[in-house]
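Lesson 9: reading folded outputs for more than one chain in a single document. The general rule is that every protein is listed as its sequence immediately followed by its structure tokens, and records are never interleaved. Here is the first one.
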Amino acid sequence: MARSVNKVILVGNLGKDPELRYTNSGVAVATFSIATNEAWKDPEGNLQERTQWHNIVAWRKLAEICGEYLKKGAKVYAEGRLQHRNYDDKNGVKRYVTEVVLDEMVMLDSRGAGGSQPEYHSQAAPSGQDQSAEKSDDLPF
């Protein structure tokens, strides 16, 4: 049986500063969005543009790095896996979320002459484990 692959690679700009918080057991989690743009000419030759927004979730040390170094408008390379989940909001309405669980991140904006940009990797949970769910006594990852 063939292996399956769940890999997302994005290069885009942050829509706002990452929101960094900690779970009850002290695990860091950062959430932010990345905008990617595409442009094409329609049949009449007019330039058309579209922006897609992607929800990103980073965990542990990678979350702390994102919270400290990434800022609104920053260009980043983001690599991770696609995750779908749902939850009930405050009014009991079921909400569905699609997000990229970040495994690697590279800041692409220049920080001055001659400086190379650092690359960051996380130690992600095995595929199939929902990192958004927290247990009070222990985390599943």
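And here is the second record, again sequence then tokens.
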Amino acid sequence: MGEKVLRWAAYTRNQVAVAEAIARKEYEDLTPTGVGVVDEFFALMDEVGILDRLAVEGVYQRRMIPMVLLVVTYCARIILGLSSQNQMPTHLFRDAGLLRRIGYTARHIEEGFCQRGKGLMRPIHKNTVADALERLSQEESEGIYAGSVRDLVKAGFVPDEVFSMDGTELHTTGHYPGAGSITSTKEVTNKWGRTRTVTSTRHGYLLLSLRGVQSNTVVVAKVGKIGMGEHPYAIALVKAAKAAGARVRVLVIDGLYCVGDMLWRLKHEEKVDFIVPADTNMCIAQDARGLALLREEAGVVEEDQEITAVGLRGLTTYDAYQPPEGTGRRGPKPTLNAVVVTRWKNEAVPQEDQTVLITSLPVDHPLRIVEMYRKRAEMENKLHRELKQGWYIERFPSKNHLACLAHIFLTLTLYNVACAYKTRRGQELANRGIRRLRAEHLGGAAWVLVVYTKTEYGLFDVEEFAHLSGNPPQRFHRYRP
């Protein structure tokens, strides 16, 4: 295969040695495999050091299966996009090549580890994987994720300086002991005009994320109960991101984080600039809208085909923007800048509805501030919706709290790996680990064989295997000898 070999399984990948064994007809086993996408992910994870972080111990008194094998198996489930544990026997455990790839031996595949399920569940029962996640401590789950972020930052996959922060609810039922709940009421009017009050309760977790706007990497995440406040954790998340090596220079956040002392600490203690919309009833918002009527006399006006924005400097009417209570303050009163959007999508915005963005950045080019803030809205589609619909982050393996946390942090880890893999550098590193992405170049895993010797394995197109074994077809369609 090349100079570097991958050793996270019971076998070592060695393309050259296995090819020679095929030519000598001394290989032991072969099977078709759907290993392609898993192989690519694991190769990149191995290159940057993430794979080693899966070697956790868990809390066990007695175990027959190595914990790292169970964690890797669950990672394979996430990568393959399986939405539930019930899909593992049919989509994962029936692929002998994939099982051999992630560390199961031929005996494990044929006989299983134990007789659970009356000997019919091979190599393991699907619930065994879920049970393993329940034995991961919260520190171990968070450690895998936090360590993977440091690895990606060190490898150059997080070049961002602008970050966005937001939370999203991960819904469960009321039978998850570690989840929270929140009850809300609203007035509902039916088609006959009758109004009634409807009360509903949501159960679940709140995932709070700090995301790089350019790379889409989630550099810090916190999981709490649904309904918890978000802004009290903003400073801690920024500090954690810096500790991981991320260069946090600007933070774009929504109105929930428009809390004066927190914004002051963000700018003056953490040296991070911010952009946040002001509440429509705040004094600074009303003053900014009034000054925007003066246009060039009060600030900087900039417009394009769809947007007109007015930049205003040195506003002092946000009284809450000051050091936290109990700390001394010296010097003049802190000031903030603002950008008022007076025209949106080529239509004038009524004064009372105009968006006011307050920021610690210069507003010499107000359209840049507006465009930068619009990146925050991408979190809903590029992160939250993708995690829920594409990565099934709300499909928990069990109701156990530790298993839910492990599922969330492992999913975030692999999501970040996917973001890294999409880059040119990510593909180069994966190629260094695999040498070439066979499933992609050969048109799919249906034509790929995994061939084993006693200690090594290799991935070969079926035409390449026929050529190496001395029985080539008269015409090759994909492989070039």
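What the second record shows: Residues 254 and 276 are 6 Å apart (CA to CA).
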